[in-house]
């Protein structure tokens, strides 16, 4: 059974083009990003707060209104077997679009989800490759699996986006340029500014100053012309 730690019954911003979606937050994560908004979901020993049957019952009742289901976390791919099984149960109710939010650390599991037929992948690009250890909170972090996931998504077997959350203490314009050089031109890449809240793992972090955001975007657009601020 999935460890489900939260359930947002209706969102108009989590699936592309404002498709009405239900959002499921799964427990457990293999990163400890200092600027994570959901650090309470990092532990892998969490007990479910919402049952699968409760969600399935809701989706069955609202299948004429809800058009997509989004899985975030935490890191959904940690629970790959139960996740795929649950997506299958959801699809039996209606042909909901399925979106997965991921950190990209498990490319083989990500590939399994793509082969299973998920509709959209949103992968975080935490930082330039050189500063990934700092951004994911793991010393001597190897980026090989991250790079593999980027290459996998760029094969265009599924609709996807990359996104980077900008934090003053972690990102400068050189990092943005390095991200652009590494990832290369893709259809959807979003820069989104950090917003502090009580759920952040470490306090004292700041967003990028507003006057710098356009400079960061301009720098990224040299490599990814379709990049946008979110």
Verbal overview:
It is a single chain. The protein has 230 residues and is of the alpha/beta class. The chain has one domain (4-165): Alpha-Beta Barrel (TIM Barrel), CATH 3.20.20. It is 31% helix and 20% strand. It is built from 7 helices and 8 strands, in the order ββαβαβαβααβαβαβ. It has helices at 52-61, 80-93, 107-116, 132-136, 144-153, 173-183, 210-221; strands at residues 4-11, 21-26, 68-72, 97-102, 120-124, 159-166, 189-193, 228-229. An 8-stranded mixed β-sheet has the order 1-2-3-4-5-6-7-8, with helices on one face. The mean pLDDT is 94.
Largest sheet at a glance?
8 strands, mixed
CATH superfamily membership: Aldolase class I
Average pLDDT, to the nearest integer?
A: 94
**What share of residues is helical?**
25-40%
Beta-sheet strand percentage? 15-25%
Integer count of domains = 1
The CATH class is identified as Alpha Beta
Structural class: alpha/beta
Task: Order the strands across the largest sheet as they lie in space.
Answer: 1-2-3-4-5-6-7-8
By DSSP (H or I, 4+ residues per run), the number of helices equals 7
Compute the CA-based radius of gyration.
17 Å
The name of the CATH topology is TIM Barrel
Please identify, by name, the CATH architecture: Alpha-Beta Barrel
What's the total count of β strands?
8
Order of helices and strands: EEHEHEHEHHEHEHE
Question: Unreliable stretches, pLDDT < 50, 5 or more residues?
Answer: none
Distance between the termini: 34 Å
Q: What shape does the CA trace take?
A: globular
């Amino acid at each position: 059974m999935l460890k489900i730690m939260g359930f947002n019954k209706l969102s108009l911003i989590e699936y592309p083009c404002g498709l009405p979606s239900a959002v499921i937050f799964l427990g457990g994560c293999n990163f400890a990003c200092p600027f994570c908004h959901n650090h309470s979901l990092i532990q892998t020993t969490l007990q479910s707060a919402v049952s699968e049957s409760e969600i399935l019952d809701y989706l069955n009742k609202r299948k004429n209104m809800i058009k997509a289901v989004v899985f975030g976390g935490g890191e959904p791919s940690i629970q790959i077997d139960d996740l795929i099984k649950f997506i299958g149960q959801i699809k039996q109710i209606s042909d909901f679009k399925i979106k997965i939010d991921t950190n990209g650390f498990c490319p083989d599991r990500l590939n399994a989800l793509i082969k299973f037929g998920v509709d959209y992948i949103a992968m975080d690009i935490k930082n330039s490759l050189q500063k990934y250890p700092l951004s994911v909170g793991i010393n001597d972090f190897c980026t090989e699996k991250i790079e593999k996931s980027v290459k996998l998504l760029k094969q265009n077997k599924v609709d996807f986006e990359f996104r980077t959350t900008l934090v003053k203490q972690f990102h400068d314009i050189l990092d943005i340029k390095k991200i652009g050089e590494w990832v290369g031109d893709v259809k959807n890449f979003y820069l989104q500014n950090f917003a502090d809240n009580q759920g952040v793992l470490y306090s004292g972090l700041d967003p990028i100053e507003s006057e710098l955001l356009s400079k960061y975007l301009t720098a990224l657009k040299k490599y990814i012309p379709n990049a946008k601020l979110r």
